[in-house]
Automatic annotation (TrEMBL):
CDD domains: GATase1_PfpI_like. The lineage of its organism: Bacteria, Pseudomonadati, Pseudomonadota, Betaproteobacteria, Burkholderiales. The keyword Iron-sulfur does not apply. Residues 19-188 form the DJ-1/PfpI domain. InterPro entries: C56_PfpI-like, Class_I_gatase-like, DJ-1/PfpI. Transmembrane segments: none annotated. NCBIfam families: PfpI (TIGR01382). Belongs to the peptidase C56 family. One of its GO terms (molecular function) is peptidase activity. This is Putative cysteine protease YraA.
């Protein structure tokens, strides 16, 4: 997959100094859906923390560019170590393998529930929305995702829209890697508010 050219940089974003963002992933995440927003948020002054269910793979999680292996990134904390109250927002990157594994992890469900119930921003892209459905958070919400998830989200009680970025209260959602620049801007604006 070609790199996503991003027109998102710290000059386009509000300052996020002191803001802490949890990035919840496991092996098989879509790399640009993590690295694009992470880079934009950090350039704007936010601190990001990669959180995974475990550190079994030498303390790293494996990224993918669609079906091809990409980079392995270091895990900063496990779900058992991370306290959702210590974060100002959560980022849920997609990737089929990642999202399918996280959606059944009760600790991941509890983490995202805690962030959402506190009214903090929940930024989700592509297949990451599966976790919101499995955590029983989707009912009555409107969001976008990778198109193949629309039935799952509707069955979970959500309204699905086909949009580059959609904001519903504290949720910011996008469909795919091409949406990363707009997604990063919308997430940063919500985090700054």
């Amino acid at each position: 997959m070609a790199a996503i050219s991003s027109d998102t940089n710290s000059q386009n974003l509000p300052r996020l100094d002191g803001r802490k963002v949890a990035i919840l992933v496991t092996d098989g995440f879509e790399q640009v859906e993590l690295t694009g927003p992470k880079s934009a948020l950090e350039e704007a002054g936010a601190q990001t923390t990669i959180i995974a269910p475990s550190t079994a793979s030498n303390g790293q999680v494996q990224g993918f560019n669609h079906h091809d292996k990409a980079d392995a990134l270091p895990v900063d904390a496990t779900l058992a170590q991370a306290d959702p109250a210590q974060f100002d927002a959560v980022l849920l990157p997609g990737g089929v393998i990642n999202a399918d594994a996280l959606r059944t992890d009760e600790r991941a469900q509890a983490f995202v529930r805690a962030v959402d119930h506190a009214g903090k921003p929940v930024a989700v892209i592509c297949h990451g929305a599966w976790l919101l459905a499995s955590a029983d958070l989707a009912r009555g919400r409107t969001l976008t995702s990778w198109p193949s998830l629309q039935d799952d989200l509707r069955n979970a009680g959500a309204a699905w829209v086909d949009a580059q970025v959609h904001t519903d209260r504290n949720w910011i959602s996008s469909r795919k890697p091409d949406d990363v620049p707009a997604f990063s801007r919308a997430f940063a604006q919500a985090l700054a508010a």
